[in-house]
Amino acid sequence: MLRVEEISKRFKKNGRTVLDHLDLSLEKGEFCAVMGGSGSGKSTLLAVVAGFLKPDEGHVFLDGKDLYVLSDKELSSVHRSRIGYVPQSNILLKNYTVMENIVSPYTDGEKEQVLKEKAAVILSEMGIADLADRFPYELSGGEQKRVCLIRALLMDPEILIADEPTTGLDAVTGDIILRFLDTYAKSGKIILAATHDEHSKALATRVLTL
Amino acid sequence: MSNRKTRYLLKNIRRQRFYNLCLLLTILILSSILFAASVISQSLNQGVRNMERRLGADIMFVPKGSKENAENMLLEGSRSSFYFDDSIFEKISGIDGISEITSQCFLKSLSADCCSSEVQIVFFDPETDFVVGPWIETEYSKKLSQDQVIVGSSITIENGVIRLFGKEYPVVSQMAKTGTALDSSVYFSSSAKSDVLLHAEEKGSFLTEEQKKGEILSSVFVNVSSDVKLEKVIETAHQTVGDIFDVVYPKQLNTSLAGSLSNITGIVRILSISLTVLLFLILLLISSLIMNQRKQEVALFRILGKTKRKLALALISEVGAVSLAGAVSGCLLSALIVIPFGTFIGRSFSMPYLGPGTLKTLLLVGVISSSAVIISFLTSVFFILKVTNIQPYLALRREE
Fold first, then answer.
1. How far is B8 from chain A (nearest CA, A)?
2. Residues A126, A57: one domain?
3. What is the reported pLDDT for B114?
4. Number of structural domains in chain A
5. B235 and B278 inside one domain
């Protein structure tokens, strides 16, 4: 379903090659943990696979279609409904409430209520239902991370790409997130997560070390 | 746009309330300046053009010492009365080189107890008058009988009549506003002069013995043939009637007015352009700050699947909505000041002033609001395109 062929990525600034002719293929139900030290290229790989960062060489195919030849509209459609992304930092918009942070990227005012109801269900599953009307500065790091994850999952993407989803979190919160990811993968989705976490490694169906 | 989309748009505007308030205020100031400058320039222009059309005499002979009063009366509409013995008309009309000649007599009603209101009364000869006659003919082309009057636009009429010196005179026509002294005058045919003066004498004791006789006039208007010099006619008039008159040059007054108008509108234009340029730069700064502030939001929305086009349209809609609100408010605020105080503005420039009508005002609001929105669009479109074309992933990494 997701196929990465011979991708290479060099950074012009320092000339360093972080990905060198890498191949990867993932099918439904797989949870792939990408491991490696700092600067090994984990985040870069995730960005390239997600379609955010064009590789210098190689291709990323989703159902046989190269992500990097798609139009802006087509690629946006992929990002909207097929690939969910959780950034490394808890990037939330400070003047949006938790609910607005989750729902606003996917709506222009239309179908807002349907998405809000869906978000409320996931917020409840994540144990933060009572935070829907709070602003990001009122949340802990763990709560913020869960909001970012819910935002990425709202449209039921077939592929969830998470950049260090448990880094900096306490054990309990990390565990909640990992269990959620595991359940999600088992429901027939693909998880690609960069991590240093041994727990993630244990849950992963595949480990890719860079 | 659906209600939901409108609510969403307003919510987004409220989220950036500080910057949007700055944008709104800047556009409000810009449009109010543009509106005021346009209304003042156009009103002065229209007033002077009306004056030019209706004061088309080469020479206006007035009694010696009355020049300033006559000029003030023509330009500012101040009420005045000064008189010659009416025999001067015959003497001047015999001078060679005169192509057109007519006379007028002015009488000011003095006290409120005798008249509906204080007005300038003008007796004119409908047969020969080329000064106000053609203007009056545009609204009333029939013969004006002895007890009928035509009034300027500023004159108050009650039940179709005007009461002057204890007598009611039917008003057969009220002229359209000109923004000049003509608006505050009542026009009688010169054949009514003796009758009106008689009533005036009955009601007040302000008439001199000479005036009571009715054999008076206030000014003689003359147009001179193109091959004759004005100075020559004036010199001959001096020789014929003696040193009993001053000369006012209505056309030259117009030329001088046109010069003043050109100066005033020039200054208004320069000030407007300078302020527009300054506000344009401020708008550029505000747009740059707004879009910089929203970089993270745009990058995040791009990563989560919003297209560049959709985001650009959303941002343009927000800027457009705020700008439109600011522009319309600015025009209305400016209209509340400039339109009611139009007469005062005209007087402060010592120039005729004809404010725009409702339709023209609405048209101006439309044109200036559109211009302000376009200016706002031009100052923001570059930053909107720049922010929606960022590499979202790299932009988010930089924000981390």
1. 5
2. no
3. 47
4. 2
5. no
